[in-house]
Amino acid sequence: MPDVRLASPQGKWILFTTVLGSSMAMLDSTVVNVALPRIGRDLDAELSALQWTVNAYMLTLAGLILLGGSLGDTYGRRKIFVVGVVWFAVASLLCGLAPNAEMLIAARALQGIGGALLTPGSLALIQASFHPDDRGRAVGLWSGFGGIGAAVGPFVGGWLVDGPGWRWVFLLNVPLALVCVPVALRHVPESADGRKHGRFDVLGAVLGALALALLTYALIEATEGTLLVAVAAIAGVAAAIAFVYVEKRRPDPMMPLDIFSSRQFTAVNLVTLCVYAAFGGFFFLAVIQLQVVSGYSALAAGTALLPTTALMLLFSARSGELGDRIGPRIPLTVGPLLCGAGMLLMLRVGPDAAYLPDVLPALLVLGLGMVTLVAPLTATVLASVDASRAGLASGVNNAAARAASLVAVAALPLVAGMGPEAYLRPEAFDAAFGRAMVVCAVVLVAGAALAFAFVRRPAPGCERPECRTHGNVVSPPLERPRARKRL
């Protein structure tokens, strides 16, 4: 049984290194967006290259995050966590040194592999290391500090882009890893799940990632209208069908399809797809809109988005408590509607937009909507399956959110009519951004309708999430299997 106490020096070191490691991946999911316009200009890249700069990372992260958690459980959570941190740092160095867009995109894909190894490992180390009496508080601190990191990320990213340059957005990860790895090796105890047998659903992971990659390529390059794009789309659909077939037939699948036999679980994941598709598209385009159209600096654009994360940090725990009392149906219906209203308010953000009257109201409404829905969404995911599958359910939900963001970043510019050089032409980008916000609002309304129609109050005695404080805006909090905790 784990016996490290939170108040001990070792406990503090464990918390420090897990927060630092997970913050690297969390920061990279938000900071890079702030740097996109400068990256595009410096590397003479089209909009599609900027989409791939975001999606190459999300693709490997979403496709491999479930496999990364299984590797840690089998071969040692500390070992896989350290490998993930080192991998992430080396890939970050390659990103910072990339001479062109193609090399940057390839390095970003490598970054996502590192993120898939360290992201589930950081929370798993806390669950496996701390005494049960301290585990809940340790998870809360890990989640809270991680949220603070997410909040300051866009600010730091903007400062780096305007100061030493966008390459330091990636290079900053190297010294962080140089601190994280020695602390982990010295102070974090190794742990593994003795029940694991070492067999992994590698084929399922490859097929899932391949399906996402091919469909993403087809969406991003759809304006070209070439035979290659059509072949990629057909192959992507075929890979998705093959993934379902493999997962249904394997004795130990990465994503057991019978978990979707729960109507509640299926409904909540459909809501997740709608919500995080809208979020992914919004955070990809909003920072570009603020810089290209409204004339904000990278620092000002990054700082402008802080209210959404700050509201989630301050009130997500209270929102979770409210969801416990009244059930998830109302929060999961009202939350997306508030987010949709916030995105429609972004239609006021055009040339020379002032922050207080034009930008801040939209972000406050959006942030309130996110606060309302994120914590109840996680609680409902955990409550919709047996307690023994809580970690799997959370992992599937997290992967679904990242996949939705991935597809949105690929599809939204196409649907909104953004050309290859739209981000270099303020008037064209402004018009397309308005259309994109309407699309995002419609998707959120669809999510609200799904929640109202199909989400019901969980049965008594359900799982309760331990990540009660949440600041990540690109995916729901990832929960690991743990001792049964009842509502």
Automatic annotation (TrEMBL):
<feature type="transmembrane region" description="Helical">
    <location>
        <begin position="12"/>
        <end position="36"/>
    </location>
</feature>
<feature type="transmembrane region" description="Helical">
    <location>
        <begin position="200"/>
        <end position="220"/>
    </location>
</feature>
<dbReference type="InterPro" id="IPR020846">
    <property type="entry name" value="MFS_dom"/>
</dbReference>
<dbReference type="InterPro" id="IPR036259">
    <property type="entry name" value="MFS_trans_sf"/>
</dbReference>
<feature type="domain" description="Major facilitator superfamily (MFS) profile">
    <location>
        <begin position="14"/>
        <end position="459"/>
    </location>
</feature>
<dbReference type="Pfam" id="PF07690">
    <property type="entry name" value="MFS_1"/>
</dbReference>
<dbReference type="InterPro" id="IPR004638">
    <property type="entry name" value="EmrB-like"/>
</dbReference>
<feature type="transmembrane region" description="Helical">
    <location>
        <begin position="267"/>
        <end position="290"/>
    </location>
</feature>
<feature type="transmembrane region" description="Helical">
    <location>
        <begin position="359"/>
        <end position="383"/>
    </location>
</feature>
<dbReference type="GO" id="GO:0022857">
    <property type="term" value="F:transmembrane transporter activity"/>
</dbReference>
<feature type="transmembrane region" description="Helical">
    <location>
        <begin position="105"/>
        <end position="126"/>
    </location>
</feature>
<dbReference type="GO" id="GO:0046677">
    <property type="term" value="P:response to antibiotic"/>
</dbReference>
<feature type="transmembrane region" description="Helical">
    <location>
        <begin position="395"/>
        <end position="416"/>
    </location>
</feature>
<feature type="transmembrane region" description="Helical">
    <location>
        <begin position="226"/>
        <end position="246"/>
    </location>
</feature>
<keyword id="KW-0046">Antibiotic resistance</keyword>
<protein>
    <submittedName>
        <fullName>MFS transporter</fullName>
    </submittedName>
</protein>
<keyword id="KW-0812">Transmembrane</keyword>
<feature type="transmembrane region" description="Helical">
    <location>
        <begin position="166"/>
        <end position="188"/>
    </location>
</feature>
<feature type="transmembrane region" description="Helical">
    <location>
        <begin position="329"/>
        <end position="347"/>
    </location>
</feature>
<keyword id="KW-1133">Transmembrane helix</keyword>
<feature type="transmembrane region" description="Helical">
    <location>
        <begin position="138"/>
        <end position="160"/>
    </location>
</feature>
<keyword id="KW-1003">Cell membrane</keyword>
<keyword id="KW-0472">Membrane</keyword>
<dbReference type="InterPro" id="IPR011701">
    <property type="entry name" value="MFS"/>
</dbReference>
<feature type="transmembrane region" description="Helical">
    <location>
        <begin position="48"/>
        <end position="68"/>
    </location>
</feature>
<feature type="transmembrane region" description="Helical">
    <location>
        <begin position="436"/>
        <end position="455"/>
    </location>
</feature>
<feature type="region of interest" description="Disordered">
    <location>
        <begin position="468"/>
        <end position="487"/>
    </location>
</feature>
<keyword id="KW-0813">Transport</keyword>
<feature type="transmembrane region" description="Helical">
    <location>
        <begin position="296"/>
        <end position="317"/>
    </location>
</feature>
<feature type="transmembrane region" description="Helical">
    <location>
        <begin position="80"/>
        <end position="99"/>
    </location>
</feature>
<dbReference type="GO" id="GO:0005886">
    <property type="term" value="C:plasma membrane"/>
</dbReference>
